[in-house]
Amino acid sequence: MKREIHIEADADALCRAAANELVRAANAAVQAKGTCTVALSGGSTPRRLYSLLVDEATLQAAVPWGQTQIFWGDERHVPPDHVDSNYRMAHEAMLSKASIASTKVHRIKSELPDARDAASEYEQTLRECFHLASGQLPRFDVVLLGMGPDGHMASLFPGTAALQERRRLVVANWVEKGASYRITLTLPVLNNAACVIFLVSGEEKAQTLRAVLEKEAPCAPLPAQLIRPTQGRLVWMVDRAAARLLSTDRR
Ligand code: 6PG
């Protein structure tokens, strides 16, 4: 696994750099095989990135929308029009303005009453979209991830059951913080991606980012330390505030 760390001046510069990285990776995938699959992250940091991809003419023109399929890395167990919905955030910021067919946008059916059904349905969607044989993993061309101050990414929170899942592609994960279920891709899927791009911004992430990037984790690694694409790139895109505590040779 090749790990890269890019430090940008601030959140806006970070999202611009990430947008360019995403466009590069998407076009490389289309060049190589005619299609591109992207798993979006939720949270607040990527909203600016998503807006840039449709609001900036050069970026909008550079995204291979016609050959791209959109997925999510995780979703909260809420309806798609709920204020906490990752789908709603991406739809408002980007997809409602992008020239992409709705058949190419694969949201997690998080309105289903049982989160486990939503997870099974989404796993079936992955099997169909990636034409998976039994036991095969989907290989996303790009997976976007954020990182929480506790080191979680997607909906893989410290100490939660989903971190241990090695067979299923998608699970419903009970997250004590927030006392709710979330639906999430599992580690085997995330680590099978061709390119994982972490987006980390803000002072409140600095301590965790140093721990993830610079501390060997003797016992319980932070979830974000478990992202090691087996045959892919790991790109950390961070701003100066989040990188504040990194050793100087990384800054
Ligand atoms: C979610 C995301 C989650 C997010 C981190 C960081 O559903 O919220 O999947 O993993 O990426 O919590 O969020 P921020 O970018 O808002 O700090």
Describe the structure in your own words.
The chain has 251 residues and is an alpha/beta fold. Helices cover 30% and strands 20% of the residues. It has seven helices and nine strands; from the N terminus they run E-H-E-H-H-E-E-H-H-E-E-E-H-E-H-E. The chain has helices at residues 11-33, 45-55, 57-62, 86-93, 115-129, 187-190, 206-214, and strands spanning 2-8, 36-40, 68-72, 74-76, 142-146, 170-175, 180-185, 195-200, 233-239. The strands form two sheets. The protein has a six-stranded parallel beta sheet with strand order 1-9-8-5-2-3, with helices on one face. Strands 4-7-6 form a three-stranded antiparallel beta sheet. A hairpin with a 4-residue loop joins strand 6 (170-175) and strand 7 (180-185). Helix 1 (11-33) crosses helix 2 (45-55). The protein is globular and about 45 Å long. The mean pLDDT is 96. The structure holds 6-phosphogluconic acid (6PG). 6-phosphogluconic acid binds next to loops.
